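[stage:ingest] chain + small molecule (S-adenosylmethionine)
[stage:ingest] validated
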Amino acid sequence: MAFFSTRTGQFTYFSLQVGEPLWRGKKVLDFGGNIGNILLDTNSTIDEDRYWCLDLDRDAIEKGRASFPKSHWFFYNRYCFAFNPYGIPHLPIPDPGQTFDYIVAYSVFTNTTETDMLELVSQLEALLARNGALAFTFIDPYHFSSPGRNNFQWRLELERERGNISDSEMKDIAGRAQGAKWFMLVNGGDLYLETEDIRPYEPEQQKTCYVYHTEEYMKTLFPRATILPPVNNEMQHCCIIRKS
Ligand SMILES: C[S@@+](CC[C@H](N)C(=O)[O-])C[C@H]1O[C@@H](n2cnc3c(N)ncnc32)[C@H](O)[C@@H]1O
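[stage:predict] done
[stage:export] tokens:
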């Protein structure tokens, strides 16, 4: 089923994180950029014709292309539990024929397994131009983005409101997740702690897969990276890898 992102503010977020508001003249790859909402950010300084978007939602790519015809849009048929359950597992990123000054991925690896994240980040790093920066987000479950509840409690309360879990299930899941370095919440109520060994789900049953990593754990996965807390009232941390 097509997914069109309604999120905005991605440019403000990434420009604050990389410390550079002027992206004019820079080539930008928006990995998992969906319909290209980053271009709609009122602060965006991205040139439409220097923007590439790669996503595994075919309809989102077509919609993005219709809105921004001067940009470059690519469908990427890789398997993803929530967004492309019929895709091809481990399909390499297609060669875009160039390197990029900025590669961004907003809320992409918050929906993929850790194996996928490590594989894809390494392929994206190879697409960086000299002095380029790769910036992608992750969610630390224990970070308090708003007073009174941490990021994971926020998600669990949403799943309870949506009727996917009961109040007691919510408390049970929160308790079991406590202290884990990373975990996945599948279809709103199935918690997997520090493992990708999940039970089989038919493609039609693959609805959501929210993946959480602590800041400390991300530092061990990406020792060369700069890890920054959320900005702009968002809940996602940022991991930045620069090519010198
Ligand atoms: C939560 S949405 C965020 C979309 C967009 N970055 C934004 O901020 O509006 C996640 C997006 O990542 C895409 N995605 C997930 N895994 C991907 C992968 N392995 N390669 C490319 N796109 C991916 C999904 O299709 C979806 O469009």
